[in-house]
Amino acid sequence: MLKLNSVLTAGAVTLAGFQAPAQKPAALKAATPNIIIILMDDMGYGDIGTTGANQYDTPNLDRLASQGMQFTWFYSPQAVSSASRAGLLTGCYPNRVGITGALMPWSTIGINSDETTIAEVLKTRGYHTAAFGKWHVGHQREFLPLQHGFDEYYGLPYSNDMWPVDFDGVPIHLRDTTSRLMRYPVLPLIEGNEKIGEITDLSGQDKLTAEYTRRAVEFIERHRKEPFFLYLPHSMVHVPLGVSEKFRGKSRQGLYGDVMMEVDWSVGEIVKAVDKNGLAKKTLIIFTSDNGPWLNFGNHAGTTGGLREGKGTTWEGGQRVPCIMRWTGVIPAGEICNRLASSIDFLPTVAAITGAKLPGKKIDGVNILPLMLGDKNTTPRHELYYYYKTNSLEAVQRDYWKLVLPHRNNQSYRYVDPGKDGWPGPYGSETIYSPELYDLRRDPGEWYDVAALYPEKVKELQDLAGEARRDLGDEITGDPGTGRRQPGTIKE
Predict the structure, then answer these.
(1) Which CATH architecture has domain 2-16+29-381?
(2) pLDDT per residue over 30-41, tens digit each?
(3) What pLDDT does residue 292 have?
């Protein structure tokens, strides 16, 4: 907690002392910088060195932060995989586009072809596009990346634990033929639109990070003379953990630390490829995570750095995630941004940078380019909705005030035993019976409910919740919402 508060305080000092640039940097006039988004899976706010990680080192991520800007109030649009990725790609709250929770290998929905992705926005400006890694917004052909603006794809169509193998690497049919894992097919590897192989054991998972990285570096080299968009959604650090022999046993924190060291190496390789090809001033690099750590996996999960709970909850540990951006000569080096932002803001920001048109349908993201330029006199985003499950509005935030609404939280981790040897412990449960108010500026850990002290703020945020329900609905209160759209469905 001390380390987290130190980072937040440092941001406040920077805010007071920095003056906005008088004019936009010259690099912005080119309007077609390369865009690289590196998305981690289940990495917590506290999992990198600059936010307090220990027993392993992340020198490349720490260096990236020193060369660019670290966002300390940055949020995933939902605390679970498919929903979070749908939000990042479309600039919308996930429930607006009909993707909630985590899609399964038997799911019959995916990202709708009527939605516009970042890749499709950038294709209108002549970009070459590629995705290497975990997709997870639909695994059937019509939902895969090549049908949504990407020229190249290689990776897993969904999470790396969606296979008939237990977390210790034992095929489930050898242990328990009644397990839910028996429903899963073998984990497919996809290139383009076709399955080119299968992962049947943990040794296959050990190769994923290095292979995604190799392909990403090769893509940068191949397109160094033309604008490109590289989307690198890693399968790690989601369980089951996989790491190459080069990094196995290298950390002081066991397998999770080893995986983090390999992920940091991967970031270093991407940055090295950019710099070696003279692209530092032409490339925006964004590093973030899809949601917080899956804490019931004990020492096979990361840390929130003192934030409350983790993945699968709408507490801060579930949705506040690390975010670092570097664009040499454009983003001020060594800056900390403590303004509210989210990955749903990437699409409109990229459109603003490149001069591309926004999608014709309503989106929820805002242009955060002024924050990236170091402008401390602007606040593009004031509000955030915290939705979970099918369509449950569990909290709303305005600036630093967060109102937690009555709901049952079936994945509560605060007092859960992580389980023997780091394997899954039992799920807890927690019910919020009346609205709870948190001042995140003073209490980022959400320990102290101050609703009784600020009834006017409770009323203000309840009104905001009403706006959310009218637009996006709320299954808890029965509001249908008028602004929700349907996901894509399999064609018969």
Answers:
(1) 3-Layer(aba) Sandwich (3.40)
(2) 579 999 999 999
(3) 97
